[in-house]
Amino acid sequence: MGTDKRRGGRKTAVTKSSRGKPMRITRVECIPVTTPLAKPLVIATTNIDRVHSIVLKIFTDEGIVGFADSGDTSPFYHGETQDSIAGIIATCIAPRILIGEDPTKIEKIVGLMDLLVRDNNHAKSMVDAALHDIKGKMLSTPVYQLLGGKTVDSVGLGYVLMAGPPEKLVPDAKQALAKGFQLIKLKISPDYEGAIRCVLGMREALGDGVRLMMDANGMWNYDQAYQALRRMERANLELIEQPLPYWDIDGMARLRQRVGTQIYADESARELHHLKEIIDKQAADGLFFKTQKAGGLLKSQRWLTMARLSGMAVMCGCMPGSGLEAGPAAHLLVADQWASQFVQENCGPLSVHDVFESDGKLQNEVALTGPRYHNGRMYAPEGPGLGIELNEEFIAAHISPGFTARVVTAKG
Fold first, then answer.
1. How big is the chain by its Cα radius of gyration, in Å?
2. Domain 145-379 is classified in which CATH homologous superfamily?
3. What does the pLDDT read at residue 77?
4. How many helices (H) does the chain have, and how many strands (E)?
5. In 133-195, where do the E strands start and end?
6. Model pLDDT, residue 2
7. Strands of the sheet with 286-289, listed across from one edge
8. Distance between CA atoms of 8 and 180, rounded to whole angstroms?
9. Other beta carbons less than 10 A from residue 229's beta carbon
10. Domain ranges of the chain
11. What is the pLDDT of residue 19?
12. What mean pLDDT do residues 339-352 have?
């Protein structure tokens, strides 16, 4: 067997037809990593000055290794942490499902994860991403080819501004628009009146021609959301994301009937049965998804099929994270015809490094390569699998304090 530089110098895969038996998973590693941010991220629920993530490696007996990165872990958003992600993978998913299994059987593995493990979609999404990485490397093809091939070469993006007064946000908003971003998204602060002033101030500063939206992260009750949206009508928001708590789908439906602003569901839209409830109750005009929320690429495709069937627009967010964190969604967004029509916001590496563009070559983070961001558009990595190379030196130097890697191997 020779080496293939596209695989990071690893041995070229031996296919089942030439070796006579399928590839098997032999080892799983969960590595806790903490990445400092160039600038803190401020939202209603928390302030983030560093990303606490898990880097997942799935090893095979053919020398191919699949990678995934959780991005920032969020007890608020997912109810998952570094401990819980590493724990469920190391104590259940790896020993009971992965070790000894053929990693190309992604549908089978995803089904077993859902059968044996309730919730924990963030952890499941990482396994799914690493398996797609392995399969793409085995076939010497990018993951987007496994998802149906490219529909578009790139997707347009919106730019997310953290909570703050408008006078501090306007310069970044204008710079983002000048760089080609198509939409500005505002995160709210816990200050209710301040959030309303921010939206009105941003509209006045940016003018009527700018697409403007806000994300409440489910922090308002029904009365607060209704009153705020009525008071912000003159700001002509394109949409508001998750104005009510995740559980209040009935309240979202009632609110949608009483206001003119489009309502998009994020935290409320997780499993397929949640989507069905939202659709049946006409509780949203559109949907926000993340591969981490849906449980991986395979389940995201099902998720997007439901959105397509209901005629609902979709926007893909991200967890603040590395080029590796952003990679799976980048491949999905250029491949999926429905999602590719809409503005997206899969910009995790831009948040980590506080930049508006990236040539896909990265430093001071988990990955050495990642999606390319240029003129307000995102391009999926090329090369086999996710097309992303790990920054092993950075990972070794930034193991999260008080944590150690968890390793599961085949017995005997």
1. 21
2. Enolase-like C-terminal domain (3.20.20.120)
3. 80
4. 15, 14
5. 155-156, 158-161, 183-187
6. 40
7. 158-161, 183-187, 212-215, 239-241, 262-265, 286-289, 313-316
8. 33
9. 24
10. 5-140+393-409, 145-379
11. 61
12. 94
